[in-house]
Amino acid sequence: MSQQRRGLGKGLGALIPTGPIVDGTGAVSPSGGSTQDNGPQPIAGAYFREIALKAITPNPRQPRDFFDEERLEELAASIKEVGLLQPIVVRSIGGGSYELIMGERRWRACQLVGLDPVPAIVRNTQDDDLLRDALIENLQREQLNPLEEAAAYQQLLDDFGATHEQLAQRVGRSRPHISNTLRLLNLPPNVQLTVAAGVISAGHARALLALDDSRAQEYLAKRIVAEGLSVRTVEEIVATGGAKAAGAAPKERSAKRPSMPGLVHLADRLSDHFETKVKVDLGHRKGRIVVEFATIDDLERIISTMAPEAAHAMREGDEVA
């Protein structure tokens, strides 16, 4: 089998030590991570390592019993292209074997593409909050590329129950920055590669995200590299509809809705205001606004911003129920 990508960076793996736990208290060897103020600190109860797939068994208490095959294939394709940016989380069960705690979809997808060994966080403590908080603290210290940063944010949200607000406060970033960085994970895998390698900037990548068509994103990304386009130029190309991918089917071109630069600017302003991705579309007869949210808490936050009275009524209804 051809060599599989290990990932462009370590994501959360860059934020924790790589040395093993040395005693029963969960303390780790100080050599596993930097203790300088501007570097990641050792985390009690966890360390990073690569583990063979055959040494990992699924969690028998996994609440999810159905995995969407189509989405699993999509994840596998992404891992094959850029590697596994979000480590799985396991615990040692002795004899060189490990049990999954978090990340069974990632583990299954790695099996599909033959990524072996896989990056993992080996956890010895049962305190999710302790590990989450330590990882957030180290995220503030470690310099990651934009894609690694996005993967770290996403894993903290998915696996460790962090919120956008916690991330923003603890790493000294704004909520729009967190949301915009997370959006980078929606780019096609080969465009993600160019972002992670520093060939195109995060600003370029955010401009590409205004395009709905992945082929158009890929086409314009190639133009950025070949022509040395500035972020402002890319934004103008997107706003004027000049980023259609070469070779697009005629039917798709004729069905393309008219592009209005003002709508792109409006969508950006709404995205900043609501601290999430907002799309504004205008068809031949009517338009629509699409507001994305990550969790129920995030939805309630957005509704509170849009209509405080409605949000208050919703909360009162939940309390009565």
Automatic annotation (TrEMBL):
Gene Ontology molecular-function annotations: DNA binding
Annotated region described as Disordered, given as residue ranges: 242-261
Top-level taxon of origin: Bacteria
Protein name, UniProt field: ParB family chromosome partitioning protein
GO biological process: chromosome segregation; positive regulation of sporulation resulting in formation of a cellular spore
UniProt cross-references to Gene3D superfamilies, sorted A to Z: 1.10.10.2830, 3.90.1530.30
Family statement drawn from the similarity comment of this UniProt entry: Belongs to the ParB family.
Organism of derivation: Nonomuraea dietziae
GO terms under cellular component: chromosome
Key words of the record: Chromosome partition, DNA-binding
Keyword DNA-binding found: yes
Annotated ParB-like N-terminal domain residues: 49-139
Keyword Coiled coil: no
